[in-house]
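User: Show me an example of a complex going from sequences to structure tokens.

Assistant: Sure. Here are the input components:
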Amino acid sequence: MIVETINLTKRYGTLVALNNLCLRIEEGESFGYIGPNGAGKTTTLKILATLLRPTCGEARVCGHVVGYESRKIRPLIGYVPDFFGAYEDMVVQEYLEFFASAYNITGDKRTRVVGDVLELTDLVGRRDALVDSLSRGMKQRLSIARVLLHDPRVLLLDEPASGLDPRARIEIRELLKELKRMGKTIVISSHILHELAELCTTVGILEQGELLFQGAIDQVLRQARVGTRLHVGVLDQHDRARQLLSGVPGVREVVEQDGRLLVDLEEGVEDYSFVARVLLDGGLKLRELRVEPVDLETAFMRLTKGVVQ
Amino acid sequence: MFLMKQDVATWFWRLLPGNPIFLRVLHGAGRRKRYLWIRLIYLRVLFSVMFVALLAGQPTRGALDDLAKGSTQVFRFVSIAQLVMICFLAPVFMAAAITQEKDAQTYGILLTTPLSNAQIVLGSLMSRLFFVVVLLLAGVPILCVTMLYGGVTLRQILLSTGIAATTALLTGSLAVAMSATRVGTRRTIFSFYLAVATYLLVVGALGYPRAFRRPIESLRYAERSRAIEEWAATGPQRLSAAQMDRLLLIEPEELNETAIGAVVKDEGASATLLKTLRQADDIAAERLDSDLTLFGCRGAPLNTEGARMSWLAPFHPLLALQVVLNEVEAPPASGGDGGLADALLRRPHYGYMGVTSSVSLVVVIFSMLYVRRGVREGEAGWLGRVVADLGHRLGRERVRRNPRRVWQNPIAWREARTRASFTGRGALRGAVVALGLACSGVLLAVYVGGWGRMDPNEIHFWLTGLIIIEFALILLMAVNSAATAITREREANTIELVLCTPLSSGYIVYGKLRGLVGFLLPLILVPTISLLGFALCDAVLPKARTLVLPEAAFELLLLLVVYASFACVLGLQMSLRFRRTVQAVAAGVAALIGVSFSLGACGYGLIGISGSFGALVAPFTPFTAVSLIVNPAWTLGIDAAAEPNTVRSLISVGVCLAAGFYALVVVGMYRTMVRNFDMTLRKQMA
């Protein structure tokens, strides 16, 4: 277990940001940490990054306890916050050398390491550019370059794709996939769930400081699947279609939305051809009939209440 | 007609009393404890000053005129303290105008609302000014206490408050103009503040009536020195240094052939020397009456100490206040047609308030015209376009440059190098260094070449004043740079990045301190080089008297380094304690002024007890230490020339002891900071 929290609790005055959080992340995993705004994701990452101390409970990184062995933890982690902290009047190379020096990487090794991370993050051509002049996507790549200097075991990334354009998001995603291939343990919080689904092996869903679910992605999809939902479209007489379907055995609920009907079937119902039959027998003209896919986003919406702290 | 009147009334109401920006600040500030604490500390300082002044000026007989003199003295101290606090704290309050809207990113939103330009500018100005005006009004009852025993009039109280208020108004107008034209960024706050402080220090020093004015004894001493040198060069006998000193110290009423004969032992020489010395005394008396420093006001009468008002009085708050306090007199009305210059000089206090109010009005009107027409968000202003064009012509793009080598200690490198970049702080440092070297170069040239009829004593006074001003600037820059060292990291969101690294608290704090002192080193070298230049000249060129002691440069360097380190640690502590840059800078500057003022008062008091004791102890107090090293005769009193070697030894010992003491203080403060660093920062992040 490379990251573990045991009944981790954090309070800010009367506000409980984390409530008895028990998290377990294995080495080499890519862990996606998702939750509504104010759920406590950033607080968790900051505790693991040794920036905050727990109010009670324990957090361990690489076997060391946060708050008591923080100095031993810092060389083993790389933290990318959800904002880019920029030093004025520094160029890219100076920025990386500054942090390399902070990690006690000196001399020829420093030059070599800085060159390597610049190449990995495709910033070689910008090494003499002022950090302030970089685009947001490049700044994010520079942030990731910064945390790779000292070759950490764990990467803590707080919404790394936030505010990026699609191309920049793809670049970051590819970079993270490369890091995953290199065997890094990555803990990443994000709101862009379909990208997390592509990148992560396990996810944790947090709401109001409590962990609702932790496990593999297919497990969370299974848990969120309480029944099949069909999208049904008829050419006219929507109300009649709703009335016809509402009383049919196997149908749990029918809701009209955006000119189509959302039909929730009972759990266990796998054959939904009866829906088409009921409508056609009722003289209605069927325009659309499809199954709503259960992806991470849908699972998240179904599992959380959407309450913001 | 009625509706039109109502519209006009509504317009005026919403311009200021009902201005949404003004009301927002008023409602918010009224509930903040911070402003209550600031008022309490301000009043506490005024009370303390009043108390100290009362103790210092105890009336001897308890008679009414003694009480009136005492209360006049108290009023003098309190009004100067009030004005100094407003002069140095107002820019810090006003500087918040430059960044607050930008930080909150509300400026652009404000511009899209139906609020008029006048409402935006006046609302921003008056909301900042409100705090300062409240401070001034809170101090009025304390000033009025001094009226109880007479000697102080209500007019004087109102004038001194008015001078402080118009100073704050001008500072606020300039800050709002910088905000409106988007020239201001966080970097320019420091430059703005330092520019105001530099103006106040330099112009105040130049115009201070007593700064380069000496009592009649010094003028007599200077004239006699010159006369004796000329006499000795052409006369019948040469004189030793001891004979010369004895001749210089003879009082005018005791100046006769017998007294001179006791020194030179030659009747013929005594007669001619007597005539020469009497002529020198007459020239000194004439000089006292007619000699003007460059900044003395022609026509202004001399006061009892031989000082007169400066023509800079209408342009400087402290110089104008001196006229209100009756320390100097304004010139009487001239017989001619008067004119603006005459009016300003005859009533410099009204003149100052008029000048500052007029300039403020012009600046505010400019801001109103410019606020929506100025630099757009993200576009370069005219200065930025000129710089970019220049860079392009020189083949250098503004957004790229060659990487510099990062030191082993990256924190120290960051403070010393990147904060001293060509823009902002670095340019200011360069300007101060260049100006300081230029001024001392000019003085040295005058000293060596004998130009401008400046005698060595006068040059010495100018040198002393220059070095004291440089020292004040060093301390201000030290505390300002240090006070922003951690708050800027917090505001730029880089503090978390540093805290995640293996760097320990001690390493970070030491790095900051080392980097800050490294940044200040070029400034510290300027007065040192100046003194070294004069000492070398004294050693190489044949001169009758030594102007600067040979060891003075090294003693000054040692003390400047420890004092600068002390100011840096003080600023760092404020930077750690306060979350925002403006708060940290205000607290740092206030602490520095308080410490300097208290220690300086102690220093001058100790010097008054005894010259020898003062020589040993004065190095422990910042400004008296610098004055003592540069000009021991002037600082300790002319009798120091009687025992030069003793005094020199005592000064050297005192400097070493003071350097050791302050080094220990710095180490102690550093250790306390390191202990609290981690806990304080993480608590603030929580």
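The lines above are the inputs; the final block is the predicted structure for all two components together. The interface with chain A takes residues 187, 399-411, 413-414, 418, 421, 423, 492-504, 682, 685-686 of chain B (CB under 8 Å).
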